[in-house]
Amino acid sequence: MNQNIPSIEQLKELGLPAQVSYAPQTWGWWVLLALLVLAVLLVSARKVWQWRRDRYRREALVRLAELQRRSDDLSALRELPELLKRVAISIPISGWKPHPVGALSGEEWQAFLEAHSAKPLPADFSQHLAQLAYAPDATLRALPAEHRQQLFDTCKLWVEHHHVAA
Questions:
Q1: How sure is the predictor about 64, in pLDDT bands with cuts at 50, 70 and 90?
Q2: Separation of CA 63 from chain center
Q3: Measuring CA to CA, which residue among 166, 157, 163 is closest to residue 60?
Q4: For the chain, domain boundaries
């Protein structure tokens, strides 16, 4: 056998390198990590707070969907103005000033709906709501299906997109 050719018995096992810590070595990285964790906690807390604050909106949308399924029923149409009024009363406001929404009607009610709407509303929306609440049954039965659908869509749009004081 040739002496110049190494054999497997001559191989030596290499030692492993020293372990390297994954922890940051300077205090700046610890501060950055703490700020990052704090930011995640604050954003999460804000999201939870907004989700809890908008509970009334989610419940109103569920009720509105139930009413829309029964749009041929007069009681479902008559409940639309009441539902919007309850949503408006439930809007969380900053401070302790009470909402005067319960007493609003006509132009004041229309102005309130428009002021809190993120999207434009029909100019006669409050009149349609008053008609749903107070018109005789024969008048409501005579409403075309497209008009009923438009009322439900407008109500849904307002409930989904109305402004809330932060």
A1: very high
A2: 16
A3: 157
A4: 55-161
Residue from 107, 67, 70 nearest 87 by CA: 67
Q: Give the torsion sign (CA, 151, 159, 136, 123).
A: negative
Q: Can you give the pTM of this predicted structure?
A: 0.71
Q: Report the C-alpha gap between 7 and 111 in whole angstroms.
A: 94
Q: At what angle do helices 74-90 and 145-161 cross, to 10 degrees?
A: 20
Largest CA distance in the chain: 114
On whether the CB atoms of residues 80 and 132 are closer than 8 A, the answer is yes
Residue in the block written with tokens 């700046």: 28
**Which DSSP string do the residues of 55-102 spell out, in sequence order?**
HHHHHHHHHHHHHHHTTTSHHHHHHHHHHHHHHHHH---SSSPPP-GG
